[in-house]
Design a protein that fits this description.
The complex is a heterodimer of chains A (353) and B (233). Chain A is α+β, with helices and mostly antiparallel strands and 353 residues long. Chain A has 10 helices and 20 strands. In chain A, the strands form 4 sheets. Chain A has a 6-stranded mixed sheet with strand order 6-7-8-3-9-10, with helices on both faces. In chain A, α3 runs parallel beside α5, α4 packs across α5 and α5 runs parallel beside α6. Helices cover 79% and strands 0% of the residues of chain B. Chain B contains 11 helices and no strands. The mean pLDDT of chain B is 91. Chain B has a domain of 145 residues: MetI-like (MetI-like fold). Classes of the chains: A alpha+beta (353), B mainly alpha (233). Chains A and B meet through β6 and α3 of A and α6 and α7 of B.
Chain lengths: 353, 233
């Protein structure tokens, strides 16, 4: 049940505003593609074009290598469905909401009942059939919207910020369902998000969208491994600093990021720069010792966040650095708030963005 | 005062005595106005869907036009239609003048602006994404429009009541293109006007009571149905 989709030179303008400019992207069969971008970057417009409810001003859309035309659009639309960011429900029961798409497809009544029940089980809403959809909680409503899309078993599923404004419990239920559907049904999924954590975990590939253009496509490791200016411009990213780069007498480049914190880097740039150090690249020590790391800074722990297997620490060395360590290391080192520690990272770990 | 009370007493006697003329005229009024609504809905609802779900230049002008037309004097419209339907008029060959069909058409035109504006408002109040939602679930253009109308049903219902009340209570169109011919085009309002002029007050009061009962009864029944539906939701 998979579907490959391609956008070729797609541009979408509303009056004089260009929402999307010359988009070229291939969505592979059975993958989860994340669209990561700031609000208003064009993610929703891109999804609506893929859902065939918006026509591109220029360019072409291909489903399974077949060009979508005016004539075949309504038939092709049956291959795809979309869950909107703002939960949109019909003002009727949960059952009628889920049954709508199946009725449109002229599915027999008994089959509709069977499919609706199955979809509700999948989103953990069994027994909600007769409830008025609009009277449910926000999280439950979004799960109804998702199950209404899943019940159709389309080959392409489009999700616009599916967990935006949801509490962590409902968000994780939805993420789990999306992952299961992709794994078990091999459904091709395109999901818009500006949630970095979600973007890191769910998709196999990420397309960064900025100002209606694709600023980069890659695996989560590629996208987050080397932080780009585009990503840093809208995402809340740890360890991003601005500073002044200058060359020292021995030829190395040092960036002063303020508060007497100077970092050695391998950059050739001079003057004002923005830099990023991945929390994973930073090593934490209790005592100073000789190492090849060019940046060793003394500070104290000012914040501890338990993320399960990982513990996230904020260390104040004059500027706050975020460090990620395993729970085991955290326990073995007996770390606690205000404890003095050293952080170390290589000059090559300092990325200029 | 005694005359009025006397008239009201006699009016009730007429209503409950089963006078055939009273019921024939009442039934014709309901039939003519009811048919006018159904016919007007045929063009008014597509216009409202067009106005309510799309954005384009000139939309405000069109809405302004229909809003202004709600206040169209019924006698003015009656006169225009009289000229059109009369023998020398452009549609004289259809021989519609002084027929129930002429009243139906006239009332349908009269209530079109009201249905258009009230339905447009109801559609505009529906979540703008409903049409897109229906399409993403596989609906065709027509099916997605029906989904929007269903969401706006409360407002469409209200448009129906308001229009029916306007149609059943209007006099100008029915008088001028119907001619108030007994047994053929006589309706409640034209009957009231005629019998009052003749001094037959008890009959005109009886019809007025029936007219008011129809207007209040239908409005109340519709509101009760709406309230019941809302309670179930």
């Amino acid at each position: 049940m998979t579907l490959g989709v391609e956008l070729r030179n797609v541009t979408k303008s509303f009056d004089e505003i260009t929402a999307l400019g010359n988009i070229n992207i291939e969505i592979h069969q059975g993958e989860i593609l994340g669209l990561l971008g700031a609000n208003g970057s064009g993610k929703t417009t891109l999804l609506k074009i893929l859902a065939l409810i918006e026509k591109p001003s220029k360019g072409e859309v291909y489903f399974d290598n077949k060009r979508v035309t005016e004539q075949n659009a309504s038939l092709t639309r049956l291959e795809t469905t979309m869950v909107f960011q703002k939960t949109t429900l019909f003002n009727t029961t949960v059952y009628n909401n889920l049954a709508y798409g199946l009725k449109v497809r002229k599915t027999p009544k008994t089959k509709i009942e069977e499919e609706v029940n199955r979809a509700l089980r999948l989103v953990k809403l069994e027994g909600f059939e007769k409830r008025q959809a609009k009277k449910l909680s926000g999280g439950e409503q979004q799960r109804v919207a998702l199950s209404r899309a899943l019940v159709l078993n389309t080959r392409l599923l489009l999700l616009d910020e599916p967990t935006a404004n949801l509490d962590p419990r409902n968000a994780s239920i939805i993420e789990e369902i999306v992952s299961t559907v992709n794994r078990e049904r091999k459904t091709t999924i395109v999901m818009a998000t500006h949630n970095m954590f979600q973007a890191k975990n769910l998709p196999r590939r990420i397309a960064l969208i900025k100002d209606g253009k694709i600023a980069g496509v890659g695996t989560p490791a590629e996208i987050f491994g080397s932080l780009s200016k585009t990503l840093a411009s809208f995402a809340v990213v740890d360890n991003v600093f601005n500073g002044e780069a200058r060359t020292t007498e021995d030829g190395t480049t040092v960036v002063d990021i303020g508060n007497n914190v100077r970092l050695e880097t391998t950059t050739q740039e001079r003057g004002g720069v923005s830099l990023f150090i991945s929390p994973k690249d930073i090593i934490l020590f209790e005592e100073r010792f000789a190492s090849s790391a060019r940046n060793v800074l003394k500070g104290k722990i000012v914040e501890i966040s338990d993320l399960g297997a990982i513990v996230r620490l904020k260390v104040d060395v004059g500027r706050d650095f975020v460090v990620q360590i395993t729970k085991r290391s955290f326990n073995e080192m007996s770390l606690n708030l205000n404890k003095e520690v050293y952080i170390a990272f290589k000059a090559s770990s300092v990325q200029i963005i | 005062m005694t005359n009025i009370l006397d008239g009201i007493t006699k009016a009730f006697e007429l209503i409950f005595s089963g006078d055939p003329r009273v019921y024939e005229v009442t039934f014709r009024s309901l039939l003519v106005s009811g048919t006018a609504i159904l016919i007007a809905a045929l063009w008014s609802i597509p216009i409202a869907l067009f106005l309510g779900t799309r954005n384009y230049r000139g939309k405000l002008f069109i809405k302004g036009f229909f809003t202004a037309m709600i206040g169209l004097p019924t006698v003015g419209l009656g006169l225009i239609l009289f000229l059109i339907f009369s023998k020398a008029g452009p549609l004289g060959f259809l021989h519609l003048l002084y027929t129930p069909t002429a009243i139906i058409l006239g009332e349908a035109i009269l209530i079109t602006p009201l249905i258009v504006i009230l339905t447009t408002r109801a559609i505009e109040d529906v979540d703008q994404e409903i049409k897109n939602l229906a399409k993403t679930l596989g609906a065709s253009e027509a099916e997605s429009s029906i989904a929007v109308l269903r969401e706006a049903s409360g407002g469409v219902f209200l448009a129906g009541i308001a229009s029916f009340n306007r149609a059943v209570a209007e006099l100008g169109v029915a008088q001028l293109v119907g001619g108030n011919i007994a047994g053929l085009t006589e309706v409640l309002t034209t009957g009231i006007a005629l019998e009052t002029a003749r001094g037959n007050l008890e009959l005109s009061i009886a019809w007025t009571i029936i007219l008011l009962a129809v207007v209040f009864g239908i409005t109340l029944a519709t509101l009760l149905i709406e309230a019941y539906k809302r309670r179930r939701k």
